[in-house]
Design brief:
Elements lengths: L10 H4 L8 E2 L3 H10 L3 E6 L4 H11 L2 H10 L1 E6 L4 H13 L8 E5 L5 E5 L13 H30 L12 H15 L16 H14 L2 H16 L13 E2 L7 E2 L2 E2 H18 L2 H17 L10 E2 L2 E2 L2 E2 L5 E2 H7 L2 H11 L18 E2 L10 H19 L6 E2 L2 E2 H17 L3 H17 L1 E2 L2 E2 L2 E3 L2 E2 L5 H18 L2 H18 L32 H16 L2 H17 L8 H11 L3 E6 L4 H7 L6 E6 L4 H7 L14 E6 L2 E2 L6 H9 L1
Parallel strand pairs: 1-3, 2-3, 20-21
Antiparallel strand pairs: 2-4, 4-5, 6-7, 8-9, 9-14, 10-11, 12-13, 15-18, 16-17, 18-19, 20-22, 22-23
Helix pairs in contact: 4-6, 7-8, 7-21, 8-9, 8-10, 8-21, 10-11, 10-15, 13-14, 15-16, 15-17, 16-17, 17-18, 17-19, 18-19, 19-20, 19-21, 20-21, 22-24
Length: about 675
């Protein structure tokens, strides 16, 4: 019997539409029903590419016995965390406050007024290996609820009150440089000198931490920061976490060697890693990072591009009921496809083996399956033909396999990040196709995800979801600002400004400063939370603050400047307890308190543009005043009238903290000035 999820705008919810569990989507109807019945609410949060979400669904939610028990004891809500990120953040924060590690699938039990009182992650149907089963959980919670629901509710409200407390920013905080040093030291303490990355298993790409290290190295003159970034990016590119055959980065590695990944691929991970690779190239001019950026973009444009120019959200980890099956190879398969020379090369360079190079997690014994890893990602000329032949043959074989399911919803925030990545890489590497792809995606967002000047969060098959969250405004305005820097087109600067001002109106906290994640008139939760720390992706409050500070520089807008600085200060206060999680906040502080530059390039783009674009300038905003765009730019930004071409040459003007140097027309002079 179908439940209420058949018409959902989330592919993940539709996967559960035929469960025996009487699922509701997130909304008032479910909580009103719980209140009228006097029962708790079970909230199951996951996403389409989540392997253990599928396991729990198969073991429990597809089981008629479990469905009957859940329907009798609870009102049940299924949530796509990508469609409702603030719901996910709120309940994940509550889970952490209860002393649980958190993760997905996330299982929450709440009162009818949405207040959580129990948290777990994956649960089997029946208890095993010390983990409570769904059937036992229902029995225990139902008994406790009937015995004393008032006490349970009081506990939940006490928890919510604790979540709503603001960090202390009473003036005892260390200065910004000390905070940045603390964040750097936290990363150093967890750095894996043998394999790159931070901490032990599991390891995530966390590209924003790499971007912070590049900025720290730039401002502090510390080569150790650069070396950590270089080693980590190279280790990831060689590892199984990077799809050596079809390209793209997987979600995370289950081991410290980056060998065996959790196989899902997320759009936002590709985007943030493209940015980190592009910035690494700007630091050391190593073409390795240009190639790595190009590989990531090739995957996204080939496999995640949606009709109309936007980008789909993700690809699943599973296919044919097995995680990673699409990516793994038996030795016999390789023998059938490859020549003897190719097989020897694959064995030597990619560590494939007759016994398999993937071990069973419980026994440690070889499984007989191989994952391509460890090879030279960009082989020398003498090996390139052999390398290319292997990749092409295996791609052809993979094209006949059943692919992992693609989550074809389009998320505004993740598309914003991808627009930023394409625009940045296109500008730095002089690739007009990437810039054009960014513009097509940007126009898709404006035409399909913006209604009367307000953003929606997602769409699926042409149907849009509810109103946008802070992250939607943060990442999309960042993407538009990057497009402006890449093209000089005032349309994108105006759009970035428009969405920043809407975000200030809808999400800014006038009383205690900083951005809330949600709009109380739309996103109904017990309290409005802020998020200054990063998760798997950068904090939206930090992303939008950086955009505000750069817009303030271009527009000479003191209000944007003040709010950007206030957000930076609020982030500093929040970073005291966990410096490791505040990489993006530290980048905001670096921008707010460092020397900011406005660099204006006048004339037809030439050698000077190449020099500016290939230089790492994290606190600069770049304006291109080409003959084609000059009139529009001058009408919108009158101060640019004074910036003219000298003797008909391409000319660069550099202004630091609103104090300008003499115009530059010579490459060597420009290189020296940019170093300063």
């Amino acid at each position: 019997m179908a439940n209420r999820l058949h018409g959902a705008t989330s592919p993940y919810l539709r996967q559960h539409a035929d469960n025996p569990v009487d699922w509701y989507p997130w909304g008032d109807e479910a909580f009103n029903d719980a209140a009228s019945r006097g029962v708790p609410v079970l909230i199951s949060i996951g996403y389409a590419a989540c392997h253990w979400c599928h396991v729990m669904a198969h073991e429990s939610f597809e089981d008629p016995e479990v469905g009957e028990v859940l329907n009798r004891a609870f009102v049940n809500i299924k949530v796509d965390r990508e469609e409702h990120p603030t719901v996910d953040h709120f309940y994940m924060s509550a889970c952490t406050a209860m002393g649980q590690a958190g993760g997905w699938p996330l299982t929450i039990v709440a009162t009818p007024d949405r207040v959580p009182f129990y948290c777990a992650t994956y649960l089997p149907k029946t208890s095993r290996y010390g983990r409570m089963g769904v059937l036992e959980l229902v029995e225990k919670i139902s008994s406790a609820w009937m015995e004393d629901s008032k006490r349970i509710s009081e506990f939940g409200h006490e928890l919510i009150a604790a979540l709503g407390q603001q960090p202390d920013d009473s003036g005892t905080e260390p200065v910004a440089k000390e905070k940045m040093s603390a964040a750097f030291s936290a990363l150093v303490s967890r750095y894996d000198a043998e394999w790159g990355g931070f901490g032990a298993a599991p390891k995530f790409p966390t590209a924003h931490q790499l971007s912070f290290l590049l900025r720290y190295g730039n401002s502090a003159g510390d080569d150790a920061a650069y070396k950590m970034v270089d080693a980590t990016l190279r280790a990831m590119r060689r590892g199984g976490i990077f799809d050596q055959i079809g390209l793209g980065i997987h979600r995370y590695s289950t081991d410290r060697e980056w060998k065996l990944p959790h196989f899902e691929k997320m759009l936002v991970d590709q985007a943030m890693l493209i940015v980190a690779c592009t910035e690494a190239f700007q630091v050391n001019r190593d073409p390795y990072y240009q190639s790595m950026s190009g590989d990531l973009i090739e995957y996204v444009v080939r496999d995640l591009l949606a009709p109309g120019g936007g980008f789909f959200a993700s690809e699943d980890a599973d296919s044919e009921g097995s995680e990673g099956k699409f990516y793994l190879w038996a030795w016999g398969e390789l023998e059938e496809v490859l020549t003897t020379a190719e097989l020897e090369y694959a064995h030597r360079e990619w560590r494939v083996d007759r016994a398999g190079n993937i071990q069973d997690e419980s026994t440690g014994e070889p499984t007989g399956m191989n994952l391509f890893l460890g090879g030279n990602s960009y082989p020398k000329d003498r090996d390139r033909a052999l390398w290319s032949s292997i990749v092409q043959k295996l791609l052809e074989v993979r094209s006949d396999r059943i692919r992992p399911q693609r989550d074809e919803k389009l998320l505004t925030d993740w598309n914003g990040a991808m627009i930023a990545a394409l625009a940045r890489a296109g500008r730095v590497f002089s690739n007009s196709e990437w810039i054009s792809a960014a513009e097509r995606a940007a126009r898709f967002m404006v035409e399909n995800h913006s209604l009367q000047g307000k953003l929606v969060h997602s769409s699926f098959e042409g149907t849009t979801s509810e109103a946008g969250f802070l992250d939607d405004y943060a990442f999309l305005s960042w993407g538009f600002l990057e497009l402006f820097e890449a093209t000089g087109n005032m349309e994108w600067l105006s759009k970035a400004e428009d969405y920043v001002r809407v975000a200030i109106s809808d999400f800014w906290d006038d009383d205690a400063r900083g951005f809330f994640l949600s709009n109380p008139d739309v996103h109904k939760l017990p309290i409005r939370l802020k998020q200054f720390h990063d998760g798997a992706t950068p904090s939206g409050s930090s992303v939008i603050a950086q955009t505000m500070l750069k817009l303030a520089e271009v527009l000479a807008d003191e209000h944007l400047e003040e709010l950007g600085r206030q957000q930076a200060d609020a982030s500093l206060a929040g970073s005291s307890s966990y410096a490791l999680g505040f990489s993006s906040a530290m980048m905001t502080v670096d921008l707010a308190q460092g020397d900011r530059r406005e660099i204006v390039i006048v004339g037809e783009p030439g050698e000077l543009s190449l020099i500016v674009n290939s230089t790492f300038l994290p606190t600069a905003v770049i304006l291109i005043k080409s003959p084609k765009m000059a009139e529009e730019l001058e009408s919108c930004l009158p101060h640019l009238i004074e910036y003219v071409s000298i003797d008909g040459k391409e000319t660069v003007y550099i202004c630091t903290n609103r104090t300008c140097e003499l115009p530059i027309t010579e490459p060597d002079v420009l290189k020296l000035a940019l170093k300063g």
